[in-house]
């Protein structure tokens, strides 16, 4: 059975507004749930976040679960799809990107990851 069929099967007897397949959830609520799941799964390695206020550098350390959002999942999906060889124009249609320039940062990450992977053959 395909994973997508199993997920859809959970909601087969449900009726949602506007003929949606899945329940509608506010992004803030979804992010709160994702953070809680990641916390319960002990996704807690430290992550340093650096930013500047004027000329002052500020470093803060968070547990990874505190930083995970739906957008992280979106970026991961895009990068994984590109790494698996899905054409960028197909990924753009799936994700709603309207132009190539919006996809370019993801393509650059994928190209860098592929170049790193090729270094295995240099050993």
Kindly summarize this structure in a few lines.
With 123 residues, the chain is α+β, with helices and mostly antiparallel strands. The chain has helices at residues 3-10, 27-40, 70-83, 88-95, 100-118; strands at residues 46-53, 56-63.
Can you give a write-up of this model?
This protein is of the alpha+beta class and 123 residues long. It folds into 2 domains: 1-68, no CATH class; 72-115. 51% of the residues lie in helices and 13% in strands. The chain has 5 helices and 2 strands, in the order ααββααα. It has helices at 3-10, 27-40, 70-83, 88-95, 100-118, and strands at residues 46-53, 56-63. Strands 1-2 form a two-stranded antiparallel ribbon. α3 crosses α5. The longest helix is centred in the C-terminal third of the chain and has 19 residues, at 100-118. The radius of gyration is 19 Å and the shape is extended.
The radius of gyration computed from the alpha-carbon positions, rounded to a whole number of angstroms, is: 19 Å
Number of DSSP-assigned strands: 2
Lateral strand order in the biggest sheet: 1-2
Give me the secondary-structure category: alpha+beta
Characterize the biggest β-sheet. 2 strands, antiparallel
Shape verdict: extended
Low-confidence stretches: none
> What proportion of the residues is helical, as a percent range?
40-55%
Question: End-to-end span in angstroms?
Answer: 39 Å
Q: List the domain count as a whole number.
A: 2
Please state the average pLDDT score: 91
Helix count equals: 5
H/E element order: HHEEHHH
* Beta-strand content estimate: 5-15%
């Amino acid at each position: 059975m395909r994973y997508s069929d199993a997920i859809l099967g959970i909601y087969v007897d449900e009726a949602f507004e506007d003929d949606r397949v899945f329940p509608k959830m506010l992004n803030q609520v979804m992010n709160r749930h994702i953070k809680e799941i990641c916390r319960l799964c002990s996704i807690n390695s430290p992550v340093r976040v650096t930013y500047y206020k004027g000329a002052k550098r500020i470093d803060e350390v968070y547990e990874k679960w505190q930083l995970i959002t739906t957008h992280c999942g979106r970026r991961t999906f895009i990068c994984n799809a590109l790494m698996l060889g899905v054409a960028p124009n197909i990924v753009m249609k799936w994700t709603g990107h309207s132009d190539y320039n919006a996809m370019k940062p993801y393509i650059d990450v994928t190209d860098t990851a592929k170049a790193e992977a090729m270094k295995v053959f240099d050993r």
